[in-house]
Amino acid sequence: MDLVRILCAIVLPPLGVFLQVGIGTQFWVNILLTLLGYIPGIIHAVWIIARR
């Protein structure tokens, strides 16, 4: 299941974070990072998925 989440995180980073932790602080941080730059959003999303 983590592979699906990581693929979602690469295509749409907030979706990967949402699937992992739901709507919370990390989700909103990821939306902000994705809006500021796509790559930071991907890095954050993969980090969130990999650490749990």
Structural class computed from helices and strand pairing: mainly alpha
Counted beta strands? 0
The chain-level mean pLDDT equals 93
Number of domains: 1
Order of helices and strands: HHHH
Rg, please?
9 Å
Number of helical elements: 4
Helix proportion of residues, in percent?
A: over 70%
Taken as a percent bin, the fraction of beta residues is: under 5%
Low-confidence parts, pLDDT < 50 over ≥5 residues? none
- N- to C-terminal distance: 12 Å
Largest sheet: none
* Morphology: globular
Attribute tags:
single chain, mainly alpha, about 50 residues, 4 helices
Task: Give the helix/strand layout.
Layout (H helix, E strand, L loop, with lengths): L1 H10 L1 H9 L3 H12 L1 H14 L1
Helix pairs in contact: 1-2, 1-4, 2-3, 2-4, 3-4
Question: Could you explain how this protein is built, in words?
Answer:
The protein has one domain (2-51). The protein is an all-alpha fold and 52 residues long. The model has no long low-confidence stretch (mean pLDDT 93). The chain is globular, with a radius of gyration of 9 Å. The two termini are 12 Å apart. α2 (13-21) packs parallel to α4. The chain has helices spanning 2-11, 13-21, 25-36, 38-51.
What is the gist of this entry?
The chain has 52 residues and is mostly helical. 87% of the residues lie in helices and 0% in strands.
